[in-house]
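## retry 2 of 3
previous attempt timed out at serialization; input unchanged, resubmitting
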Amino acid sequence: MIYGLSILKFPALAGVGLFFIIDAILAIVAAAVILLNVSIMFIPVLVYSWVNYILLTESRVFPAPVLGVVIPVIDPSVILVFIIDVILISLVTVLWVLSRRR
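## retry succeeded, writing output
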């Protein structure tokens, strides 16, 4: 959310800033779904987590979809997001499997 709000200050990158804001809102909704244990929404959260992970990885290797250039920056915040995405994918997969057993 912080990145999105700071990027919105540049008119040429308004779409990128909006993307980050929407992504942050979706992450908050996904966290609420997990915390409230809404098992019917585990698959959409899993899909969201995979898409988020793939977009982050893709934008560091290939040209970013909106910008058209490779974003070679690997800083602590990017590494943290990679770790959080892997944890979320693992956690939601386990929760979904456990919810199917009931």
